Amino acid sequence: MEHPETELIRQSWLAVSRSPVEHGTVLFARLFALEPSLLPLFQYNGRQFSSPEDCLSSPEFLDHIRKVMLVIDAAVTKVEDLSSLGEYLAGLGRKHRAVGVSLCSFSTVGESLLYMLEKCLGPDFTPATRAAWSQLYGAVVQAMSRGWNGE
Fold this sequence. Notes:
two-stranded antiparallel sheet, globular
């Protein structure tokens, strides 16, 4: 990725990474609003959540949010060398496939990520910043998709 995009991603992530769980909760609330069928995939100790709110307030799910935000953080840190995360991301893909997440759900996750960034950054979330994030997210999903394709 070229330098200006890298800078836009790093700068915009600074604002988010100050309170990752708060912003991660916005991301997942949006995800469940867009794709409610994902909610049943999150079960801890065999317990089904009755609502997105129920899920978003559970300690186990907050842990999942923390992990997701760490993955994005790693991608931002390695934005100029994403291939170094290749094995890690393919492994994440395999884990998600194993619990029944379809690859196409990740486009909804991408929409939710952009929504969260927009909510967090307001007018600072410029079209150029959006484009840079779309590009980064696309590359991350491409690396993860190797886990679905059994590579």
